[in-house]
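Researcher: I'm preparing a figure for a lab meeting and need a structural model of a single chain. I don't have an experimental structure, so a prediction will have to do for now. The sequence is pasted below. Please return the structure as tokens so I can convert it later.
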Amino acid sequence: PEVVRIILSGYTSQDVLIESVGAAHQYLAKPCEDQQLLDTLLRAFTVQKLVRHDGLKELVAGLSGLPSLPSLYVEIMEEMGREEADLEKIGAIISRDLGITAKVLQIVNSPFFGLMQEIRNPARAVGLLGLDMVRAMVLSAGTFAKFEKVRASGFSMDDLWEHGMQTAGFAKCMAQAHGCPLELEDAAFIAGLMHDIGKLVVAANEPEVYEAVLAHQADNEAAFYAAERAVYQADHAALGGYLLGLWGIPDAVLQAVAYHHAPQGGRDKGVTALTLVHVANAFSGLG
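Model: Understood. Here is the structure written out token by token.
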């Protein structure tokens, strides 16, 4: 579980790139900036820190499989790496998956973005919201789409998605109220959208464990994350952070997901994506 596999290669055949996702956690294309490589290694060390806890290490080792990066996300990353990214082409890539398209447009048209008109075209969404935001939306929607048939009783995909949407919206609104820079505002929204991805991984891979957590929560009137710690000595926040760290998601988002129930674990102080998501999650009312 401590190993992070990273490909650094100048070979950019699309077929090989997509195929490599199953063998490696991240793909860096040459030429690679020094800072990008450094940031990638720092995130890898964060992953190692998260799995030092025996409970999480045992859970990860016992999972039947962690989700890989959605193939559409990989293709969008490749297109964004070009000198002049084609917004229409990125929109066309998104449109190939109707489920992901529906989720992206649902997010774009949510009240939190305050757009004056309904957006029905993914390419238009890219133009209005920017490449980084839409890329994160595709990652989130694509990950949720991988687990449409979760076997755990008591689990609701719709509830989890709606809670993520609400948390993301609250975090974004608070960032705006604090006058935070757009980069932080976007990071808070993305982290809010994905903060409970660890719940999804457990429910899909270990339904008996998920059901045991729900039973402990009901019997003891405990918060969900507290019940998780009692059942398997870890929680969905750490698991979600571990997964995003493997995928090379930016550190601000990774920290916000990994420590959203324990913000003192984050490195940075003050108003951060982590503190915004921590408070937004409390407002949203799901443990």
